[in-house]
Amino acid sequence: EGTPRLAAKTGDTLYDLTDAKPQLRTFEDLLTAATITGDSLDTIAERLLEDAPVLSSDALSDDAVAAPVSSGEVWAAGVTYRISEEARKEESSMADMYIDVYDSERPEVFFKATPSRTVGPDEQVGIRADSEWDVPEPELGVVLSDGEIVGYTIGNDMSSRSIEGQNPLYLPQAKVYDRCCSLGPCVRSAASLEDPHDLEMWMTISRDGEVLYDDSTNTGKMVRSVEELVDCYTSHNAVPEVSVLLTGTSLVPDDDFTLREGDLIEIGVDDIGTLSNTVVEV
Ligand code: DO4
Ligand code: MG
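# magnesium ion complex -> structure
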C-alpha cells in the first residue's frame, strides 16, 4: 500500500520490525541502527525482535514483497564460472576478448543497475525491444554495507546476448537498461549463512505454463571467492553506503533459447529463498 514495512525471519517465525522500537521501515534503516549502536546486523535484529510483534506466515503474500535493498548501486562480476566463459565465446563475434578473463588475476566487474532500474519479487523484468536474444542470469548477490559483507540475496542479471555478442563494447547496453535487474526475496545475514561457496541454485523458465528450462548448479563451481570479488569491487572505488555485488552466472539456457514477454523466471538459492519475475518488453 505504498508504505514499506520491514520483516525479519528467524527460524520459522516472522517479526514486524516496523512496530519495534525504534521503528524500522527498510533494510537500510536496520543497517543504520546497527551502525549507530556498533552492533552486528544479527545482534541488533535479535534485540529488536524482543519487542516486535509476530506476523502470520502468509503476511508476505506474493505481491507484497519489495526488493530488499532499495538504495545504492548494483554491480556484477562476470565469467566467474566455466559455463559463462563458454557462453561468451559462443555468442561473441570477438571471442578472443573473453579468453583470459576466467583465469586472470583481475576478474570482470562491471556496473549493473541503479535502484530505478531494479525490480523486486513478482515484478516484471525487462527485455529490450531492440534485442533478439535475451536471457536471465541467476546469480548469488552479496549485500555490502560500507563495503563490508553483511548478507546475501538472489539477483537476476538480465542480459541481451545479441547486443553483447555483436561487440563487447556494447556490454553496458546489453546489461544496463530499464528493469534490467531483479533482487530478492530477502537478505540472508552473512553470519547466519554457513557457506556462500556451497549453495545449490536452480532456475526454471516457463511459458504459458510449460517449463522450457530447468537446471541447477552450485556456487562451489565458482572460480573466484566472494571475498576476492568484493575486494576487487571496493578497491580504488568509493562504494555507496549500501550496494549489491552479483557474482556471475552458472546457468545458461541453450543457444536457441530466447526470453519472450510473459515468460516466468524462477530462481532459487538454498537458505535464501526463491525470486520470481515475469518478463516484459521495454
Ligand atoms: O561479459 C559478460 C558478462 C558475464 C556475466 O554477466 C556473467 O558471467 O554472469
Ligand atoms: Mg551475469
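# post-check
The chain has two domains: 7-60, 73-281.
DSSP finds six helices and 17 strands in the chain.
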